[in-house]
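Reopening: structure tokens for the phosphoenolpyruvate complex, inputs below.
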Amino acid sequence: ERARLDRLRHTPAVTLDGEAVDMLANIELPSDAAAAVDAGAVGVGLFRTEFLFMNRAPGDLPGEDEQYEAYREAVLGMKGLPVTIRTVDIGADKPIERMSVSELRHEHVLNPALGLRAIRWSLAEPAMFRQQLRAILRASAHGKVRMLIPMVAHLSEIRQTFESIARAKQQLTEAGKPFVDVEVGAMIEVPAAALMLKRFLHYFDFVSIGTNDLIQYTLAIDRADEHVSHLYDPWHPAVLRLVADSVAQANAMGKHVSVCGEMAGDVAFTELMLAMGLRSLSMHPAQIASVKQRVLRADTRRLAASLETVLNADDPMAAAQTAFRRADGAP
Ligand code: PEP
Ligand code: MG
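Re-run output (same inputs, fresh job):
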């Protein structure tokens, strides 16, 4: 079985009915690019840059040059394949020693997952945000770079983000530092963003659905709280509907859409995601071979016919007992 999966690595992921699916990698450090290339990924769908910011001495955050070097290393490591660099997603389950230049670290925050996290943190720290934006833009001079914004929920955040990007570009131009005009995408991981997708897509070039947080925020289940982990269920029809509707909306507008949450790397969901119209999945490099195997055996036209049944299920149990669950042989 292992040898068979190894042979699969460089086979293009195309379904039985000829639909090509992009198999992308999620990485956390630039050195993970080697594993991504090795696994046959056709690019990085999610580079979680917060890992450059975490586990450091208090007050020690990576500056523009350090970040630029890290992003360049990832870009060069991918050998010409596209790299989607997400701006920092710190806060909540990804704390850093210094949450903010202000006094926030001394403040007791009751619901960090609902607090100053991801793009909210970046917009609250404009100088640091522009530092990261400049670093990402500078990396674009070395390969195909796309920029991804986490936790977007408000149109005002989108406007501010694009203002910051414009400012960062202007600063680089003035400094004579080369960069390319990169595509900018949004993570769809808050229900508000899924519900506003059509409006948001007027601004963004692409979207990536973050199912880990979309489940947490749709079901009001803390993804890190073991007391309620039995209720953290990706099969909840409300979650599946938000994902399916987002994919349909993006496809209808001709915008690239991908899933980069754990669902993308879970073979139990491969057929379902293909049925929803997804043709791009980003996952841990170790999952690529087994998910690709599912893709190679799938017939998207047949699968699409069963989509309504799962979306109309009463509860997660019923949804998991539809054609999609049986297809992977689980009980
Ligand atoms: C997600 O929320 O699904 C996601 C991919 O982002 P993270 O797991 O880093 O929050
Ligand atoms: Mg997330």
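The CA atoms of residues 244 and 266 lie 17 Å apart. The radius of gyration is 20 Å. Marking as resolved unless the reporter disagrees.
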